[in-house]
Q: What sequence folds into this?
């Protein structure tokens, strides 16, 4: 299904880094990688983010997001809660847990301005960010595939912005990296949508170690 102009604009809006959910304040390990993993140039930053896209994000949160959109549309709250708990269970550091919890809570607060039943739907459900984002997409007539593209691009844009600040890089370098990620996102989405529960995973040991080290890193710009 090709989304109409209204759905396309909704997806662009949901993926915007200007949304007041705090995504700009997290680097998801990039800041720590600059100090301890040698991410000190445009090529290395590009490789790091591409690996993070394919090895981490696509096999974990992106795959879960695709399943969560369907669960929301089916009004299967048991499934929604199971997926939400999986996100919480797979956060390997305190700051990664804080990120998904804080962004999820902020996203739900923003959604209350646009969907009258949001408070009722999320009552008793401390939604993680992927699950809250999936709810928003489920209320559009966009396909799950296009929702995944928007979710992935929003992630990529935030990550590139973090790399530009932390490495640091120029804006043109950041756009080149974003261009590369944009070319790779469709393949990542296709793989993510094909994963079942037994194949979905969040195993990125180096990223987990860097996140834990970042929690006590001196002179930080970001919260993760």
A:
């Amino acid at each position: 299904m090709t989304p109409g102009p209204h759905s396309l604009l909704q997806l662009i809006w949901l993926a915007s880094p200007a949304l007041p959910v705090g995504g700009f304040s997290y680097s998801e390990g990039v800041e720590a990688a600059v100090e301890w993993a040698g991410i000190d140039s445009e090529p290395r930053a590009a490789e790091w983010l591409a690996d993070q896209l394919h090895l981490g994000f696509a096999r974990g949160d992106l795959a879960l997001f695709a399943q969560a959109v369907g669960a929301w549309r089916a009004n299967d709250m048991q499934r929604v809660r199971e997926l939400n708990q999986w996100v919480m269970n797979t956060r390997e550091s305190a700051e990664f847990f804080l990120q998904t919890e804080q962004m999820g809570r902020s996203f739900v607060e923003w959604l209350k301005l646009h969907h009258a039943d949001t408070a009722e739907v999320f009552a008793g459900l401390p939604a993680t960010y992927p699950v809250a984002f999936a709810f928003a997409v489920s209320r559009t007539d966009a396909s799950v595939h296009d929702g995944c593209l928007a979710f992935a691009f929003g992630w990529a844009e935030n990550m590139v912005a973090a790399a530009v600040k932390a490495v640091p890089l120029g804006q043109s370098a950041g756009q080149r990296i974003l261009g590369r990620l944009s070319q790779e996102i469709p393949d990542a989405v296709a793989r993510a949508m094909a994963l079942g529960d037994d194949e979905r995973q969040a195993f990125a040991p180096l990223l987990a170690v860097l996140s834990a080290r970042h929690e006590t890193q001196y002179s930080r710009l970001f919260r993760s």
Q: What stands out?
A: The two ends are 36 Å apart (CA to CA). The chain is about 65% helix and 0% strand. The mean pLDDT is 93. The longest helix spans residues 42-73.
